[in-house]
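FAQ: What does the model actually see?

It sees only this:
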Amino acid sequence: QVQLVESGGGLVQAGGSLSLSCAASGRTFSSYAMAWFRQAPGKEREFVAAIFWSGGSTYYADSVKGRFTISRANAKNTVYLQMNSLEPEDTAVYYCAAGPPSYSGVDYNTRQRYHSWGQGTQVTVSS
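And it is asked to produce this:
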């Protein structure tokens, strides 16, 4: 298990940008698969983006592709989510998640792929 703490949420106007950070504990951070999920009021938690070990493999939900960028700094035990061209539909609580580097039969975009979760940070986009 690893402890995760998100930061960087807030209120922004449509078309603006925000950058989220997720600080992780543990000496084996670089081996984890890391992801961002989000949950809007009354909706299920949904996948946003994932990044694997060296940062060479990244994956995005179709709804954020081209607008959001996930990255990681293993030396700082931190994963980031840069969000540009924000839309009111992006309003949600954003959660950071960590999982094993491989998980046979479980896709990277499913909640069960990840064993550790942060407390979440609120992102609100006004129209």
